[in-house]
């Protein structure tokens, strides 16, 4: 099972195009775009709700009921700033015009029309440090489960070089609330400096899935189920954007029993 997607040049600056159909799962979609200043991208209305994350750069964003002018103030994902994001209701088209060079993530999952399109400003996002020692990482909750959406959960994580993240290994692949929730997940990786790499392992208890990957800058790792830790080698800081969705919009995970001792 190949869970690693490398960037591939596509139309309108798109270099990732992950859908439930080509990922062989049911819920999560993910696209990434590099737009030059002045370029415009229009995404047609669909059954999916979207969360547009302005990873770096500025843009005008327009939906039928929302007009945002020149939003965004982070020029690099490794700046110590939260991003700007836009929630787009299912059934609404959206147009993005890059007012500077723009790195844009489009996160998608089934929408049910329960929430209006809105700007998610950096001040609306909670930020926190998790872990300690070489397990320290820095989290920005872009669209967590306590903020309005039908299916999507979106978070970004920065991990200093030499540290581990999504660690101890945890999973969320059982629709068994309140013990655990089923959520598919994508990891969009960035590295600083960009020639670096991280290691990510995806494995299940029975090892039916057991794949360890070297992910480079702008790669995506897909997690259909199983545990999924990330290690950042010395000298290279890690950034990743997570998109999660499943039958119920809640994040309930379980740590691997062999490794949970380190939290006690």
From TrEMBL:
Isomerase in keyword set: yes
Q: What domain of life is recorded for the organism?
A: Bacteria
Annotated Gene Ontology MF terms?
A: glucuronate isomerase activity
Q: Pfam families this protein is in?
A: KduI
This chain belongs to which protein, by name?
5-deoxy-glucuronate isomerase
Q: Name one GO biological process term.
A: inositol catabolic process
Keyword annotations for this protein, in alphabetical order, are: Isomerase
**Keyword Isomerase attributed:** yes
Provide the taxonomic classification: Bacteria, Pseudomonadati, Pseudomonadota, Gammaproteobacteria, Thiotrichales
């Amino acid at each position: 099972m190949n869970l690693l997607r490398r960037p591939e040049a596509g139309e309108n600056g798109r270099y990732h195009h992950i859908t439930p159909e080509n990922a062989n799962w049911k819920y999560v979609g993910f696209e990434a775009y590099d737009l030059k200043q002045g370029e415009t991208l229009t995404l047609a209305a669909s059954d999916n709700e979207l969360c547009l994350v302005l990873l770096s750069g500025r843009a005008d964003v327009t939906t039928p009921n929302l007009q945002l002018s020149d939003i965004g103030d982070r020029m690099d994902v490794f700046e110590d700033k939260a991003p700007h994001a836009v929630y787009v209701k299912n059934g609404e088209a959206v147009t993005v015009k890059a007012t500077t060079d723009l790195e844009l993530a489009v996160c998608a999952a089934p929408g049910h029309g329960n929430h209006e399109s809105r700007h998610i400003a950096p001040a609306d996002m909670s930020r926190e440090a998790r872990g300690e020692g070489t397990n320290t990482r820095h989290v920005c909750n872009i669209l967590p489960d306590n903020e309005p959406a039908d299916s999507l959960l979106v978070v970004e994580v920065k991990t200093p070089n030499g540290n581990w993240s999504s660690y101890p290994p945890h999973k969320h692949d059982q629709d068994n609330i309140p013990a655990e929730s089923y959520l598919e997940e994508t990891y969009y990786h960035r590295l600083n400096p960009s020639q670096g790499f991280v290691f990510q392992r995806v494995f299940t208890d029975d090892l039916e899935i057991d794949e360890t990957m070297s992910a480079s800058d702008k790669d995506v790792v897909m997690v259909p189920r199983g545990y999924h830790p990330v290690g950042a080698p010395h000298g290279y800081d890690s950034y990743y954007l997570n998109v999660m969705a499943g039958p119920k919009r809640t994040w309930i995970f379980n740590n691997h029993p062999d490794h949970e001792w380190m939290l006690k």
